[in-house]
Amino acid sequence: MRILVVEDETRLAATLQDLMELNGYTADVCHDGEEGLDNALSGIYDVIILDVMLPRMDGFTVLRRLREEGNATPVLMLTARSETSDKVEGLDRGADYYLTKPFEPKELLACIRALTRRQPELRNTDVLEFGGLRLEKNSFTLSCGGRSVRLSRKEFDICELLMLNRNLVLTKESLLLKIWGYESDAEDNNVEVYISFLRKKLAHIQAKARIRTIRMVGYCLEEAKEETE
């Protein structure tokens, strides 16, 4: 799961990024509102942590613009101001939750878990199952029947996306953005390499599900059709 942190206090932003990554999330950081809005509109994030007091564009404006563009990504707003009117304004503009600084890391993580539980495609992601496959987040293990294999972080992230979007085509561009990030130099070949790795591991555990290539578009995880005589 990918999280965007929009926070101008560099030390706090770095702390939040470390906290997210220690808890199994991938996190990108922006330090001003305009950059934050640009990244948020990419649509690659599952949750946005958004500060209110930001240079170039305040958090309220970022949130308003985001919702006007039809982006429904859950937003957790952070602010040093505790006035009820500020909280009301944030919630009225489309925020999903509001935390006042300073806050406890455990509370922040609980808020993120609560926000992702509201999205059906992200529920119960500690274990994903499809077509006889079982993907375990805590151990990065992919199994089928009594056979299992350990995945690298990139392999796991791609496999998770494919399983969450089962039977749907994911473009190479969407995989690049979601897995490598908005400002990465990774190219299509990086996706192809990791898809190849995953296919070998699916074959190793004798999985019935397969990754199908949709030529010139992307990839789709589907259950292999049984051959009829």
Quick summary:
By secondary structure, this protein is α/β, with parallel strands linked by helices. It has helices spanning 10-22, 33-40, 59-68, 84-92, 105-117, 153-164, 172-180, 188-204; strands at residues 2-6, 26-30, 47-51, 75-79, 97-100, 127-130, 133-136, 141-144, 147-150, 170-171, 209-214, 218-223.
Please explain how this structure is put together.
This protein is α/β, with parallel strands linked by helices and 229 residues long. It has eight helices and twelve strands. The strands form three sheets. A five-stranded parallel sheet has the order 2-1-3-4-5, with helices on both faces. A four-stranded antiparallel sheet has the order 6-7-8-9, with helices on one face. Strands 10-12-11 form a three-stranded antiparallel sheet. Strand 7 and strand 8 (141-144) form a beta hairpin. Helix 6 packs across helix 8 (188-204). The chain is elongated. The model has no long low-confidence stretch (mean pLDDT 87).
Q: What coarse outline follows from CA principal-axis ratios?
A: elongated
Number of helical elements: 8
Q: Which band does the percent of strand residues land in?
A: 15-25%
How are the strands of the biggest sheet laid out side by side?
A: 2-1-3-4-5
Structural class: alpha/beta
Order of helices and strands: EHEHEHEHEHEEEEHEHHEE
The portion of residues assigned to helices is 25-40%
